[in-house]
Amino acid sequence: MIKNIFFDIGGVLIDIHPDRCVQYWANSADLSLDEIKTVFSDEVYHAYETGQLSDREFFLAFKDALPQPCCLKESDFWRGWQKLLGEESPVSKLLKPLSSQYNIWLLSNTNPRHIQDELDLRYTFPKRIDGAVYSFDAGARKPDPAIYKYALKVSGAVAGESLFIDDLLPNIEAAKVLGWEGIHYQNINQLKTALNQVKVVA
Q1: Averaged over 152-169, what is the pLDDT?
Q2: I want to staple 80 with a disulfide (CB 3.0 to 4.6 A). Which of 25, 57, 115, 187 is the partner?
């Protein structure tokens, strides 16, 4: 029986727009989109999302990788970063009815800046949750098994009673290996059907 439902944020509860972010940086630094995309390092980004880099260190690592001299201001970097997050998706409306019957948690690869500056200020779904597990607190990113184990420890949940909803299939597959139930989110109608299949009623 499912007692706990963990939701990914970006791509599930919130629409994300990487191109808006990159375009803002390109305009601010007077560079092409390709120049921005080429220097954006997954390694640095992952280090930031796992709490290994501070906000300032993340910005400097990005700026230093751009063609020099570079005129990108830190304030413009963070304004562009904010543009990554879009509107709440239709999934967020499911949290209210679900929260009356299940423990609702967030489980997200994310960073301090988006949580501090965006989540509670712009969106309604944080009011419907029992808690949140973020990669920068866990020191690990999905699909690393460590973050799922950390999520169970923090929430007090049991894998066999937990459902995870994410838009990336490898993240769902990793959860299932550890005994979780999982739904690979594609759209709201598909999600409602999948919830019924695992006997979760919204």
Answers
A1: 98
A2: 25
